[in-house]
């Protein structure tokens, strides 16, 4: 079988095997993203934004993938997790339904996006390990290899790799992360003397709830008399809207920063 035939066979397998969670919400492509969030009732809302391609290249006849080639979907991933699924947009500027490289081809694309967590119940939330990067649908022939690297500032990078059979990797994220993380990813495809295809890859984000932090009103992971305490007093005095949060009543690193979010949180604390 020649390389072109192999590539078509691999592409057909991946296209037929790719399946998104039933609850997945489409968020467009990196070139034209739409509102992108998923909510786990009474726990957390994940919002994904600021999708951007940093660089892309193709050598030896390899494709130079573009922002319009990356389709975005979000869903719950089980428990308190949020699942971001990235796949080859079939209607993108580069032909094909999978990211692929034939013998002698090399392609690489680097991109970034933000993920923000917002507590939706009485408990605060913080990012919790592990995050998981997974090559949900992939295949390689011979020594063709594909890699998706996951990078968060201040944390060790991790990578899922097709060649070694290591199709997913768990990323240990240090504590005290901000409510908004910038994630960097690098996808590389090298046909070498074989070929490789990646149809879909996912990023699974996790949070832990801070059930013991009921008085952490602004959700920044600490207690403050002039922030959390002041918000409680103002709320009990009947202040709402801008009057509730004016004068720097919200602490640094807060995950609840609007009067609406704080009023909802305080309302949930009352019997």
Describe the structure in your own words.
With 271 residues, the protein is of the alpha+beta class. It has two domains: 208 residues, no CATH class; 45 residues, no CATH class. The chain has four helices and 15 strands. Strands 1, 4, 5, 6, 9, 12 and 14 form a seven-stranded antiparallel sheet that branches. The protein is elongated.
Give the topology.
Elements: H1 3-17, E1 25-29, E2 37-40, E3 44-59, E4 70-76, E5 82-88, E6 99-101, E7 106-119, E8 124-127, E9 131-141, E10 145-151, E11 158-161, E12 168-171, E13 180-190, E14 195-205, E15 207-210, H2 225-236, H3 242-245, H4 259-269
Antiparallel strand pairs: 1-4, 2-3, 3-7, 4-5, 5-14, 6-14, 7-13, 8-15, 9-12, 9-14, 10-11, 10-13
Keywords, please?
271 residues, alpha+beta, seven-stranded antiparallel β-sheet, six-stranded antiparallel β-sheet, disordered N terminus
**How do the helices and strands follow one another from N- to C-terminus?**
HEEEEEEEEEEEEEEEHHH
Shape: elongated
Task: Give me the number of helical elements.
Answer: 4
Rg: 22 Å
Would you identify the regions where 5 or more consecutive residues have pLDDT less than 50?
1-18
Largest sheet: 7 strands, antiparallel
Helix content: 10-25%
Distance between the termini: 70 Å
Number of domains: 2
Arithmetic mean of pLDDT: 86
Main structural class: alpha+beta
